[in-house]
Amino acid sequence: MGQRSGGKGTGAVHWLFGDQLGPHFLTPGEDGPHRDTPLVMIESRAVFRRRRFHRAKAHLVLSAMRHRAAELGDRVTYVKAATYREGLRKAAGERPVTVHHPTSRAALGLVDALPRVTVLPARGFLVSHQEFADWAEDRGGRALRQEDFYRRTRAAHDLLMEGDRPASGRWNLDHDNREPPPRDAEALDVPAPYRPREDAIDEQVRHDLDRWERSGEVTFVGRDGPRHFPATRREALNALRRFTADRLATFGPYEDAMLTADPVMSHSLLSSSLNLGLLDPAECVERAEAAWRAGEAPLNSVEGFVRQIAGWREYIWHLYWHFGEEYRTTNALGHQAPLPAWWSDLDADAVTAHCLSTVLAQLRDTGWTHHIPRLMVLGNYALQRGWDPAALTDWFHRCFVDGHDWVMLPNVLGMSQYADGGRMTTKPYASGGAYLNRMSDYCSPCAYRPDHRTGDRACPYTAGYWGFVHRHHERLVHNPRTAQAARGMERLKDLDEVLGQERERGDAAP
């Protein structure tokens, strides 16, 4: 059985998973491989056979793995196999194997079940499993809120600190980072994000994916190409430099805003690079802090970026492990409806609602949208319709280039769908069309109106919101953060008409 120690053993090989691609996964030490330890990488076809991934995601992962293998040269044995087990047998034979703690429970279960495999501590995160466990125990049964964890992480890593106090005296500048998009602007007036150039490895990846699809081995969703996200360490560093130099300053105020023609806004586009292990979170937050201290970016933008990485990303990673495997089946709201085909197929052209059509098209074409379209357009719509949260979590995992099991399980189940009943967040993230109208330009050209609950122009988000509140009224009226909205529903004179309209709409594309 796999061991949980740091011993390396004579003749050992070290296994790199496809999300352990940066140099920090090979730094020698007590919890890492020796400088000249042979390396193994395994490209498993079974991963793509089992589930219908976004084509751009499959391309990015394979391109990143093959580029890393090319960089490592003769030190690595790169095996293409049907399964990880088969690949490891080919590459390692009877030799002992070390591997850093994988990022999914399935992968950890696999390495634990394999003989002669030693699991080393996780890398690629700021906070260790033991540090989080100690913090959780110190809470004494109180809720594990992200804000408390974030403050602890900031202080422990001396991020944006002035002595033992936060810079400016405030831990959280979120209040300064909720601006709607500039009036009448089609795009933010900021330099474009870094975009990589494809090479011969990308060409071969695309050829292989085409061949697998033609043979019927695998099927994908979405479109592929050109590649938008870094597949190498050099590309990832270029993307980080471009963001901190040219885009970080305007990130904060508009991080929650949405524009039809500008899906990227001032976002960093670094999530896939972090989640593939091409970047270390420490270098990202330290570079952002350096920009603030040099007077190149305001504190609210830098704090917002640092909070995303040192706060939310770390928090999500640790909750994934802390909550346990049973969290996967949590469904406090009892939502069971299946995902409709137009949603699963990313059929943006079937959708009339401009916001949802726009975001689905962005996802179809690139495999990415920023966090507010994910939460308040996609997640909000699914929550209102009562779709199965486990199926929705799987969809997010497969369809986003930065989607991994550890990323999407708490993000979708806990935050987006409130399926855990409040273990992560204090209220469901459900809203009507008024929020989307305030934070975007989506509503102006739309066939629906955000202030209409009924009739031909009834906004599916506004009507759907009241359907959600009605369905869960008893729970919501006893939650201090949702009680006012729940009581407001009781005063709606057209509630029966709204509910009948939504039943008739069903899961047809809005």
Summed up:
With 510 residues, the protein is mainly alpha-helical.
Summary tags:
single chain; 510 residues; mainly alpha; five-stranded parallel β-sheet; two-stranded antiparallel ribbon; 7 strands; globular; disordered N terminus
Describe the protein in words.
- The protein is mostly helical.
- It has 21 helices and seven strands.
- The protein has helices at 46-50, 55-72, 84-92, 105-113, 129-138, 146-156, 200-215, 233-247, 271-275, 281-293, 299-323, 341-344, 354-366, 371-385, 389-399, 405-416, 433-439, 460-471, 473-477, 483-489, 495-505, and strands at residues 13-16, 39-44, 76-81, 97-100, 117-120, 161-162, 165-166.
- The strands form two sheets. The protein has a five-stranded parallel sheet, sandwiched between helices. It has a two-stranded antiparallel ribbon with strand order 6-7.
- Helix 13 crosses helix 14.
- This is Cryptochrome/photolyase family protein.
Secondary-structure map with pairings?
Blueprint: E1 13-16, E2 39-44, H1 46-50, H2 55-72, E3 76-81, H3 84-92, E4 97-100, H4 105-113, E5 117-120, H5 129-138, H6 146-156, E6 161-162, E7 165-166, H7 200-215, H8 233-247, H9 271-275, H10 281-293, H11 299-323, H12 341-344, H13 354-366, H14 371-385, H15 389-399, H16 405-416, H17 433-439, H18 460-471, H19 473-477, H20 483-489, H21 495-505
Parallel strand pairs: 1-2, 1-4, 2-3, 4-5
Antiparallel strand pairs: 6-7
Helix pairs in contact: 2-7, 6-11, 8-10, 10-11, 11-16, 13-14, 14-18, 15-16, 18-21
Order of helices and strands: EEHHEHEHEHHEEHHHHHHHHHHHHHHH
> What's the arrangement of strands in the largest beta sheet?
3-2-1-4-5
Treating each run of at least 4 consecutive H or I residues as one helix, how many helices? 21
Largest sheet: 5 strands, parallel
